[in-house]
## 1
Amino acid sequence: MKENKPQAVFREFKNLKTLKQRIKTQQAAPPAVRSAVPSESFSSLVSVKNTPSTATQPSDKELFLQAVRDVKPLKPSQRHHEQQQRKKQAAQQAEQFKRRQQHALGQNRLASLTALSDHYTSDYDDLPRQDYLNPMCGTDVLRNLKKGRWPIMASIDLHGATVDQARLRLEYFLQHSLVEGFKCVRIVHGIGYGSKTTGPVLPATVRRWLSQLDFVLAYTDCAPREGGEGAVKVLLRTSAHLSI
């Protein structure tokens, strides 16, 4: 039986209304989310990401050793020692320049040998005649002088000189030695066999002069290789003489 045209049109509108409601329902529902890795849990993913790959990543120590494999260690530096030596030399040069300047201007306070007695006798009679030790020094100073701790830095020969000549020459020599900062000097006075009438004069007189000078710390006979009994080895006190 054939339906009439109005009923057919009504049914088409009804179907259209139903389709429209279905579309609205689908749009209102939240979209379904598919799992990126449906076969793995979240905890398994976290554990995999937090586990370091030691097979492919070297340790920090290995990286450091690899970076410095071509580095060579430096030789021990002498810079500090050289700096100390330069400072010491500069101080010595400055002090020497000061002494020379004072000497040139007549400001040095060295005792003149002309004011010393030729017959002075020391109160320290416990020492042998050939030795002298300044009262301000310990006995180790004389002992070290005998052992040759301080090398002889200058020498003067008074052979054949009269007492007056020896006085002037020795005064100049001692002043020059102090200006230059010489610690240990040698004075060759001979044994005195040339004095036919009065006997040996110069050896004893020279040592009397030395024992009256406050900058003379000690003296003793020179060793045979240094001149023996005919020479006296003298230790002087200079401004830089701090380690006696």
Note: The radius of gyration is 53 Å.
## 2
Amino acid sequence: MTILEFLKSIYRVLIARFNSTPNDNSTPDGNSRLPSQKPQTELLLSYYDRLSRRWPPIVPPSWDQAGSSPVLGRVVFIFAQDIDELRNETPLDQMSGWTAQLDLFTCDLPSLLRNGLFLTCENVKEQENYVKHSHMEGVGLWYNRCYTVTSSTWSGNVNVCARTVKPIANFRLHHLSPDNVFVATAANHESNSVYSYDVRYPDYKANFMYDDMPLDGLWPWPKKEGEMKGEEVKEDEEVAKGEVKSDEGGDTAWEEEEMDSFSTWGSEDPLVDSWRD
């Protein structure tokens, strides 16, 4: 066999193997997909994580303690206008609403947990508001509306992002609420986790500092019974409906029995950056 014939035989074998190999990059709906494509929520969280690393902590002069740097804790929230879009891994370039990141450094993390986290227009340095273009992996052009926010015990940034300008132009700070928190983390000055919440993993939510003490403001959990999140209220209503048995001409089981009260209870979160005071 000549060298040319040998090369031709190898070529035929390679072609046969290529044609017989199934297309592993196709999705059930027939669309192609890159082997390295990440889940949409992972892309979003990675984007916000990189964004946080670019900005050093905003430390007001009033936080200085006898000339030394204050001990800082860190709080990071991820919000979504429509939580279900993230929960269902909707492609980011098809999302209709905004997502947002609240990234704060605080000189008094225990107080922020005890007294609640509240964010209003009074906390915004309006002269520092702006919008910029950025690039997100797997999405392309991304609009980022940026706020600088401060208070007597915390300071940081709010980043509101969307595929188009309209969602961020219509965004207002009061749109941020416990009901649309996707992820929330808090860490102390040694980067140790103090608080963890992820709507995807309800069994792993935890307050390692104050346990089940109800938290006010933007903290999504735990809440007082009268301040249950929308999805919890909806779930409770569905359970209640199943317990109601109508009796023609008589009282219902709902009227005879009182509703039972209920209570609610991590892994290391990737959003907690490695940083030191």
Note: Residues 37-243 form one domain.
## 3
Amino acid sequence: MKIEQRALRFHCAGNALIGIVDVPERPLARGMLILADSSQYRSGSHRQFTLLSRLLAARGVAVLRFDRLGAGDSEGIPALQGGEDIGAAMKEFFIHVPEMKESVILAPGDAASGAALYAVGDARVTGLALLDPLLPQVAAGVQSPALHYGPRSAADRLLRRAAAFRRAASRVVGRETPTPSVPPALAQALGGFGGRVLLVCGGAGSPNLDAARALEGQHPRSRRVEIAHASLDARRSAWRDAVAFACAGWLGSW
């Protein structure tokens, strides 16, 4: 199938956002908007979003991916980022693919919360594909930290990695392991979302498997797919392909 790739420049709150849309010759009524997390740009780690877009477009699914406010080539201040840039991207998506009637949002890592909170307020969004979703980690009796939707600084990411290392070390020495907590706002959003939810995680040993299971319990029409031994930053082509085919199969199943 012939695929046209278009570079996009659109605006959100006076800031220019940069994106790319892959439009099949005969697009299906359901498209996909890819929402990068705080550690990635529109191409994705190891170009996984670029390759996923091509695979889906070859099956007739139009795909838009973009740099969020203050990330990559887009303008803006990350600290001010909420769901406004998602709405701006969704509007642009439907303009460029008028054959589309609905869209799903694919969101990896810490983008899962922002995607769910946006989706519940936009009737055009009929599905959420959450890859290795990241939730706040809390021990018993400790309050869950506030949700964070914008890209984090390099220092913030280093702190998160250090926290992950400490959690792993605590498991080795037998200390209490923090468990994922679904923040009330996110639980309410998922509970009120009328579409479908796909949760893709790395299987046994994945640091975010418990988070995926916790989110699965918040939505009655959710499906969890575990890819054994996979790291969903898609460093290996086999893992990347498995994620792509899981998403493609889910999109065509309803």
Note: Strands lie at 3-12, 15-24, 30-35, 63-66, 102-108, 125-131, 137-138, 179-180, 196-201, 222-226.
